[in-house]
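tRNA(Phe) (4-demethylwyosine(37)-C(7)) aminocarboxypropyltransferase
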Amino acid sequence: MSTGTRDSGLELLLGSDGWVTHHENGISYSLDATKCMFSWGNRSEKLRMGALDCTNEVIVDLFAGIGYFVLPFLVKAHAKLVYACEWNPNAVIALRRNIHDNSVADRCIVLEGDNRITAPKVVADRVCLGLLPSSEGSWVTAVRALRTKGGMLHIHGNVNDSEEVAWFDHVVQSITSISRNEGLSWHVTIHHVERVKWYGPHILHLVVDVKCAQI
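Tokens:
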């Protein structure tokens, strides 16, 4: 939409409101379907994030939505604390409800607004950048959010299947350049590549786990 958000076009024909709840992997996701949309295609990635051991980790999710990755990090991966950044007010309402309903509100700080302004700095062991088609506008924000010693960036993107290697190189070179500009001495490498789904003809939804280690 012109606001920069993805809004629902669903029209309510019967009932008093559009709130629905989806149960997945022991987590409940609630949303007003007339205002927000549920993302089905990233189920495998939610499972992968939930399978991580994030005990004692602080995580920053720059595009929290209704809690797609925030909840797996908290409920399944047992993160110590998650900063959840989101600028869609309707998604924020659902996010606050979901962290409450899943009994993890005490370990989640919701930061409403543009993550380039609201995101914390030098606190994170891990940063999630789950925005399609590209999260590049917040790569500087992600680097600034990581601790000085570095950490892990989970960078999502839509990439033509013939341009995967070029995109991997672009990610590494960009994060390396940003870190140097921020006065950080990091060795930046791609730790893992996850091919989540086909987004369209020849367009893959990819996630690269980018490891930033202090030299």
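The longest helix spans residues 164-181.
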